[in-house]
């Protein structure tokens, strides 16, 4: 039996601050293994003109008993299935970091193809374009042993070593992280012959992270394309100064967007 629309929304979306009079919505996609709370609290920080929806994936938080998704299509279908009615109501922007950047783009691409709906801005962070050579040659981390996987995790920064040393936390954390990496490592996306989008696209990245092919993202849009490099490694966006910079930028871009909304 299918859940009512409101229950389905509550299952898939965390929204700390309901803003029915907001002029736009910001839909945020988690990094690999991540939950929705980091982004949901942005709703308490951003002005009331922007309502924040944080995507909650199976296998974590209130959905801990649900099996993990195995491919990107499942994420796209669920998010669009739940959000399509509200995305038709008012302008929206998408934000995703790392794994979330791929999920955000996949949703934007599907919305355009299936429903001729487009975000007013697409914000991508900490990831090479999925079709870039940098991405396609990346080792499959989800296939590493737990020990080697943890060594890699520590090397990219952002996860406190004491957390990684806690067996109980790892027991909860590792399966979700590996499941998400499996999804993105098997996500196939060819470089577009023509840009599928026309909205502005901004790529953020940490200066000390491993190099990402951000320029390759330029091919997804015929609109403005911007790269913003901030201090820090892979999880640079968790640092308060960087977070403030990102949120100020998002606010300005979303509030001043003059793109025709179809």
Automatic annotation (TrEMBL):
Q: Which SUPFAM superfamilies match?
A: alpha/beta-Hydrolases
Q: What is its EC number?
A: 3.1.2.14
| InterPro entries, per the entry | AB_hydrolase_fold (IPR029058), TEII (IPR012223), Thioesterase (IPR001031)
Is Transport found in the keyword set? Answer: no
Please name the top-level EC class of this enzyme. hydrolase
Q: Which UniProt keywords apply?
A: Fatty acid biosynthesis, Fatty acid metabolism, Hydrolase, Lipid biosynthesis, Lipid metabolism
Q: What's a Gene Ontology MF term here?
A: fatty acyl-[ACP] hydrolase activity
Residue span, Thioesterase domain: 25-250
Catalysed reactions listed for this entry: (9Z)-octadecenoyl-[ACP] + H2O = (9Z)-octadecenoate + holo-[ACP] + H(+)
Q: Biological process GO terms, please?
A: medium-chain fatty acid biosynthetic process
| Family note | Belongs to the thioesterase family.
PANTHER family tied to this protein: S-ACYL FATTY ACID SYNTHASE THIOESTERASE, MEDIUM CHAIN, THIOESTERASE
The name under which this protein is listed is S-acyl fatty acid synthase thioesterase, medium chain
């Amino acid at each position: 039996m299918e859940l009512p629309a409101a229950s389905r929304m509550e299952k898939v979306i965390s929204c700390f601050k309901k803003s029915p009079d907001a002029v736009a919505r910001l839909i945020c996609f988690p990094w690999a293994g991540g939950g929705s709370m980091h982004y949901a609290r942005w709703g308490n920080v951003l002005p009331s003109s922007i309502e924040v929806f944080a995507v909650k994936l199976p296998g974590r938080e209130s959905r801990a008993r649900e099996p993990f998704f195995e491919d990107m299509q499942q994420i796209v279908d669920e998010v669009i299935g739940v959000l399509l009615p509200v995305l038709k109501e008012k302008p929206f922007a998408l934000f995703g970091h790392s794994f979330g950047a791929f999920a955000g783009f996949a949703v934007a691409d599907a919305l355009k193809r299936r429903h001729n709906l487009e975000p007013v801005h697409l914000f991508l962070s900490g990831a090479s374009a999925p079709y870039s050579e940098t991405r396609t040659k990346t080792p499959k981390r989800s296939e590493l042993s737990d020990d080697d996987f943890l060594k890699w995790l520590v090397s990219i920064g952002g996860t406190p070593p004491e957390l990684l040393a806690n067996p109980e936390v790892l027991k909860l954390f590792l399966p979700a992280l590996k499941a998400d990496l499996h999804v993105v490592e098997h996500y196939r996306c060819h470089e577009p012959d023509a840009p599928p989008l026309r909205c502005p696209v901004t790529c953020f990245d940490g200066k000390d992270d491993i190099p990402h092919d951000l320029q390759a993202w330029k091919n997804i849009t015929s609109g403005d394309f911007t790269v913003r490099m901030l201090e820090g490694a892979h999880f640079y966006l968790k640092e308060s100064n960087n977070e403030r910079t990102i949120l100020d930028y998002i606010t300005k871009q979303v509030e001043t967007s003059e793109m025709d909304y179809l």
